[in-house]
Amino acid sequence: MPINAEYRGPGELPEVIPVFPLPGALLLPRGQMPLNIFEPRYLAMVDDALRDGHRLIGMIQPDVAHSPKEAKPVLFKIGCVGRITQLAESGDGRYILELTGVSRFKVVEELNVQTPYRQCKVDFFSFTGDFTARKGEDAVDRKALLEVLADFLEANKLKVDWEGIEAAPNEALVNALAMMSPYGAAEKQAMLEAPDLKTRAEILIAITEMDLAKKRTSGDPPVQ
């Protein structure tokens, strides 16, 4: 999806960004994530992102497995920053918005701030490849990806627009399937942290194959 701002490298992004911890949420560069914002602290976060002009929000998963129950959740070290590219007011106090992924980031430190939402100092320089669209997509095993997708759809009795899938470039296809996948936080984090598109596709294929094999042997209903 085209966006008005052109980010050509890590130096064009701020060192401090607001972060939105959301379990199971996976945003990837150039991917689109819809969000329904209703908590007052995150409404304030959106307002500030618009007011400051950068329109950026860092999506990151809380590491619930390693967080004390009485404290705010520890964050994973890697997230992805997105730019607000669509926003609508619902009329009942909510924002309906869409983020377009720009680049992954590494959390350097979480800051002590007065805002109701969390903010982190981050480093984008570990992910300079994220600023190049479609980088490495020729290495993706598209045939294997489509085969496991077909198996998943059949097992779950789902239908998709195959013409649209077949027309999609490898980067868009891999990242969209990863973002929409029904897997847990650990699996989503593994796909986020994959060093390249080829590895992300391989992780997605492996996770899906293991899930399908487990369902076949256990007799459990497929993932919905």
Automatic annotation (TrEMBL):
Superkingdom in the source lineage: Bacteria
Pfam families: LON_substr_bdg
Alphabetized InterPro entries for the sequence: Lon_prtase_N (IPR003111), Lon_prtase_N_sf (IPR046336), PUA-like_sf (IPR015947)
Species in which this protein is naturally found: Bradyrhizobium ivorense
An MF annotation (GO) of this entry: serine-type endopeptidase activity
PANTHER family xrefs: ATP-DEPENDENT PROTEASE LA (LON) DOMAIN PROTEIN
Enzyme Commission designation: 3.4.21.53
Segments forming domain Lon N-terminal: 17-212
Name of the protein this chain belongs to: Lon protease 2
GO biological process: proteolysis
UniProt keyword terms in alphabetical order: Hydrolase, Protease
